[in-house]
Amino acid sequence: MEQYKTRAELKSDTKELFRGRWKDAILLNFIPTLITFIAFLVIVVVSFSIADQINTPIENWTNDSYVSEDIGESTNSGNGTSNVTSGILSTLFTVGISFTFLDWFRDPGKKIHPIKNSLQVFSRKYFLRTFLIYILTSIFTTLWSLLFIIPGIIKHYAYSQAYLIYKDQTNLSPNEKISSLNCITESKNLMKGHKWRFFLLEMSFIGWGILAVLSLGIGFLWLFPYENATRVAFYEDLTKGKYLNEQDY
Q: What is the signed CA dihedral for 115, 120, 122, 127, rounded to 10 degrees?
């Protein structure tokens, strides 16, 4: 029977990886977070500006209640657009960071370039299929959630390893087009019997999250890389080099 590491062991692996290099880990996560936040603010400001421009002329010939309703709808639309856009950006940045942590675990001496590494998912090599995985998993999870929230959560964990599988398969077969759907299916198979373990691993960070909030958010500078890297450590332990060339493992 295959033996897997405990939550404590996975976290220990992450802390050992970061020993003396927390600055690299923090910068790797901080810069994309800052970019996403700025993009979110820009989209919100632009959305409100457009809504204001659209509704200003209407005030000259419509009653106040109609204008108020129309502005409300435009504002809600703007908020929806900003939320979706920031969600996509956040996911893509997180995937890029996870790709970097995966390389870092396999090469502990790897030199980290925060901006370049965190943006690697936007490269020609990764972007299209990564974006397709995001779209497909979002659709599948939403459809399952329509039945009941629990199936949606279960599927979220079933699909959770698809991005890292895609990275490994892309590196394993660089001249082949890797199917996003196949990566999702492979993740489902890989996570059979392990979804609960992954859920408990994520829940184990709740206490750290509370402390981060009490520190007025400063603690998240350490928590985000710690949590993201531990998820990657889970994948490494789960796959045990399954998708690597023999010379790489």
A: -160
Burial pattern 183-205, b for ≥16 Cβ within 10 A else e, equals bbebbbebbeebbebbeebeeeb
Query: Do residues 112 and 24 make contact, with C-beta atoms less than 8 angstroms apart?
Result: yes
Calculate ∠ Cα 230-12-16, nearest 5°.
95
pTM of the model: 0.82
Which residues, including other chains, have CB under 8 Å from residue 179's CB and lie 6 or more apart? none
SS3 label, residue 205: coil
**Residue whose tokens read 């995001």:** 134
Alpha helices, DSSP H, located in the chain: 7-18, 22-55, 64-106, 114-118, 127-147, 149-158, 162-172, 180-190, 195-203, 206-214, 220-239
pLDDT digits (tens, 9 = 90+) for 15-60: 999 999 999 999 998 877 777 667 667 777 776 777 667 665 544 4
How far apart are alpha carbons 48 and 79 in whole angstroms?
9
For residue 145, the one-letter residue type is S
User: CB neighbours (10 Å) of residue 77?
Assistant: 13
- Count how many Cα atoms sit within 13 Å of the Cα of residue 67 in the half-sphere of its side chain: 13
- What type of residue is 45? V
